[in-house]
Design goal:
The complex is a heterodimer of chains A (359) and B (335). With 359 residues, chain A is of the alpha/beta class. In chain A, 45% of the residues are buried. With 335 residues, chain B is an all-alpha fold. In chain B, strand 1 and strand 2 form a beta hairpin. The chains are: A alpha/beta (359), B mainly alpha (335).
């Protein structure tokens, strides 16, 4: 049995508009094994949601131009028959969305919506499907599932709605679960519950999970691998330990530095990344991050402005970053940066690289 | 649900009483406040050439010398139970619902309205079915094929449709299809029970003209509603479940887009049942609309009063039906 469940290779999703071609996703590659979690991180407009919609085939039929490869269980999805992708959707791959209230149909009972999802792909009676729906609602932690199955979405609380969405997504036991900012619209206390639920169910169902978020805390908690996206491209890709331990891209540094942490002095201010995300119609030449990057002068000549950096492995195999900085320069800069930012924090900056060096 | 319906029914009855009180006030109190004495008021109820004797007789009949609350009580009693008009020499019984006697025909108003009702019912309900089906389907197709030739063409036609008044489209269609090419000659009302085929044939032109206006409106409404719903998050969810596109469009999209249409449809139909005035006048169909026009032209106050109350009744009932339907259609409505 091939262990790799999902393989994305050089995926490009472009939207022609009146203002020009929007390169929402421009050459992204990653792979995901069964039972593992990939976190996709990036600002709004970095192409993370479009990537997931592309995998699900949800922008088929629109004007999107899709190229590259998406292989689910060895089956090519790019250019596949819409009917074939539809049959896989909900069955072999499922998705949870950001806002559970607007994502559930207000006019249909929660149970009926789960039953519908189950019966599209399974030829069972309504009664069997209803039992399955009640069972699922129970497993995602809805109290009295045999009663709540007949409730409408507006009768559920925000957290319960997201639980119901998860139940619906898992109804056909999909191999791949994509969670697109599943906790953004929820209370902080509920966020942790939902994340725990996803990770519990993941080990129970053995699904692979793609967790899309702009919240580094969320990916840190759940992900095995992390893909940092910027302007539709991969900025950095590697294991979670590597990305948090020794990030190799100035953009990732910026993300980490702008993250509030409880174990830090209140006096140290959060450091925002200067500037705004680039327009996807006119992506900056060379490295798309160069207008916001502080380290361009460390790279010789005008390389940042003219040459697109390739996604290269930094120090450890499997950890790649798209940056012109040399490996030594990166290690030095990050050590400096983290030492400056986190005076008494030993985990990330000092201990991290040394502890992992032998491995 | 049942308690909700009962509560709404009570509210409806209350509303009808309010409507009757307002109508009574318009016809019997306001003229008095404006300085008319009972004799002058009675004169209004005798028609164009009042004789002193007729006026005095009406004054006695209507009981205009009684206190106002007694008058209103008699007025309500007449509608609910009927009245014995005691005009001194002869006693006339006006069966319920009694809106009094018409000046022109000297007949009770109610039976006249009842005889005109089938015309308006045939016209309004037939046209409503046509405009609902055509308007909504064109709206759906336009929304799903936004920006295509079909969409642009049908929306242009719809714009023309909402802009053209019925007395224009009606007269043109009569000229073309009744006189020049007599496909539908002699447009007169034939009762359904007499000859269903002729009934339908003679109503085709009025139906089409009336429904053209509304279909245009409904096509635009449906298109806008569909476009909005199809971009909702729950449509994306429906697609992500792997549902066939037809299920996504009809079960998830149309279901939500149609709810407001149902509301407007109920109101429009209720309004039309009180008389499709312009259409009826244009095609000389003797329904409640034409009845109203004639009543106004002849200053036949009892007729005006009757048709006002009947039209108000239809609108109030349409409101009730829409309210109940809405509670059935949208589970978020609290009842």
């Amino acid at each position: 049995m091939p262990q790799t469940l999902l393989e994305v290779e050089d995926l490009r999703i472009h939207f022609p508009t009146e203002d020009g071609l929007v390169k929402a996703v421009d050459g992204v590659s990653f792979s995901l094994e069964r039972g593992r979690t990939l976190g996709i991180v990036g600002e709004s407009g970095s192409g993370k949601s479009v990537t997931s919609m592309g995998i699900m085939g949800l922008n088929q039929g629109s004007k999107a131009q899709i190229s590259g490869h998406i292989r689910l269980d060895g089956e090519e999805l790019v250019g596949a028959q819409p009917g074939r992708v539809r049959a896989l959707r909900g069955d072999k791959m499922a998705m949870i969305f950001q806002d559970p209230l607007s994502s559930l149909h207000p006019y249909y009972k929660v149970g009926d919506q789960i039953i519908e999802a189950f019966r599209v792909h399974n030829d069972v009676s309504k009664k069997v499907a209803r039992k399955h729906a009640i069972d699922l609602l129970g497993r995602v932690g809805i109290p009295q599932p045999e009663v709540r199955v007949d409730d409408y979405p507006h009768q559920f609380s925000g957290g319960m709605r997201q639980r119901a969405m998860i139940a619906m997504a898992l109804s056909c036991d999909p191999g791949l679960l994509i969670a697109d900012e599943p906790t953004t619209a929820l209370d902080v206390t509920v966020q942790a519950q939902i994340l725990d639920l996803i990770s519990d169910l993941q080990s129970e169902f053995g699904s692979a999970v793609i967790m899309i978020t702009h919240d580094l805390g969320v990916v840190a908690e759940l992900s095995d691998d992390i893909l940092v996206m910027y302007a539709g491209r991969a900025a950095e890709y590697g294991s979670a330990a590597e990305i948090f331990g020794r990030p190799g891209h100035p953009y990732t540094w910026g993300l980490l530095a702008s993250m509030p942490r409880l174990d830090r002095e209140r006096t140290s201010r959060l450091v925002p990344i200067p500037g705004t995300p680039p327009s996807l119609i006119r992506v900056p030449s060379g490295c798309p991050f160069h207008p916001r990057c502080r380290y361009t002068e460390l790279v010789g000549g005008q390389r940042c402005e003219t040459e697109v950096p390739a996604l290269r492995e930094v120090v450890t195999p499997g950890h790649a970053a798209a940056c012109h900085l040399t490996a030594e320069e990166r290690t030095r800069q990050w050590a400096e940066l983290s030492a400056d930012k986190i005076p008494d924090d030993a985990t990330a900056a000092t201990e991290g690289p040394e502890a992992r060096e032998p491995a | 649900m049942i308690t909700f319906v009962i509560r709404r029914l009570f509210a409806t009855v209350f509303l009808l009483i309010v409507v009757s009180a307002i109508t009574f006030a318009i016809f019997f109190i306001i003229p008095r406040l404006a300085g008319q004495n009972t004799y002058q008021l009675a004169t209004e109820y005798v028609g164009r050439n009042p004789t002193r004797q007729a006026v005095l007789q009406i004054e006695a009949q209507l009981g205009l010398d009684h206190p106002l609350w007694v008058q209103y009580g008699n007025f309500l009693k007449g509608i609910v139970l009927g009245t014995h008009y005691n005009a001194g020499t002869n006693t006339a019984y006006c069966p319920p619902p009694c809106f009094g006697y018409s000046f022109r025909t000297q007949q009770p108003v109610w039976p006249q309205m009842v005889s005109d009702l089938p015309v308006t019912l045939s016209l309004a309900i037939g046209a409503a079915i046509i405009w609902l089906v055509s308007g909504v389907s064109i709206g759906i197709i336009s929304a799903l094929k936004r920006g295509t030739l079909f969409d642009r063409f049908s929306m242009s036609v719809a714009l023309v449709g909402v802009s053209l008044p019925i007395f224009f489209t009606g007269l043109i269609s009569l000229e073309l299809f009744s006189y020049k090419w007599p496909i539908f000659p002699n447009v007169t009302f034939v009762p359904f029970s007499t000859n269903p085929l002729l009934w339908a044939r003679n109503l085709v032109l009025p139906w089409l003209c009336l429904s053209f206006l509304y279909a245009a409106l409904y096509a635009r409404l449906t298109r806008a509603g569909m476009l909005e719903t199809m971009s909702e998050d729950y449509i994306r969810t429906a697609r992500s479940k792997g549902l066939p596109e037809r299920t996504v469009i009809f079960k998830h999209g149309l279901r939500a887009a149609l709810t407001p249409i149902v509301t407007i449809f109920g109101m429009d139909l209720g309004l039309l049942l009180g008389g499709a005035i312009i259409t009826e006048v244009t095609f000389s169909l003797h329904g409640l609309g034409l009845f109203t026009v004639e009543a106004v032209q002849n200053q036949d106050l009892p007729e005006i009063l009757g048709v006002t109350l009947l039209a108000a009744f239809f609108i109030v009932i349409a409101n009730l039906v829409v309210d109940i339907l809405y509670a059935v259609l949208d589970p978020r409505v609290k009842y």
